[in-house]
Design brief:
Blueprint lengths: L1 E4 L5 H19 L19 E8 L2 E12 L2 E9 L8 H12 L2 E8 L3 H15 L4 E7 L3 E10 L2
Helix pairs in contact: 2-3
Length: about 160
């Protein structure tokens, strides 16, 4: 398992994976592809948002978009692991590596109906923090009411 920061040389790989991510959530987001078959992205990799690629056995296996909201305050904006790699807790290990890289206050939000994502984040955050996190229903300006987990990581 290897984590790589998205830059100009691998941005195309990241963008390819985002299409699968957007398609997977399209029943909930009601997004449709454009005339070329592409989904619009909600979280571009720019400004305070950094993209990460997960590689397993040399293959692109997942992505994450992490916003640095302020000093030591992070938000998981996008997170996706290709289904064939969703075994042996690869997604959880991916999340834990990100938490280790950026100690501070974190939040993760899941849209209504994303039951598998909610369960994943409860497990991943719970195992990382020894179940020390706060979960609530938060009204997000863009997504409406979302399930949110807030927690702290340390170096």
């Amino acid at each position: 398992m290897e984590l790589v920061t998205v830059n100009a040389s691998n941005l195309a790989i990241y963008l390819n994976l985002t299409q699968a991510y957007e398609a997977e959530f399209s029943p909930l987001t009601k997004k449709m592809p454009d005339d070329e078959g592409k989904f619009a992205l909600d979280t571009p990799i720019e400004g305070n948002v950094t993209g990460y690629l997960l590689y397993i056995e040399g293959k692109p296996a997942g992505l994450a978009a992490i916003a640095n909201e302020s000093v030591d305050h992070y938000e998981v904006c996008d997170f996706y692991v290709v289904p064939v790699f969703r075994k042996n807790k690869a997604g959880q290990r991916f999340a834990h590596i990100l938490f280790d890289m950026m100690p501070g206050l974190w939040q993760s939000k899941q849209i209504a109906g994303a039951d598998n994502a909610i369960a994943f984040w409860r497990r991943a955050i719970g195992s990382y923090t020894n179940e020390v996190f706060v979960e609530d229903i938060y009204h997000d300006e863009y997504w409406g009411d979302v399930t949110r987990q807030c927690f702290k990581t340390t170096a």
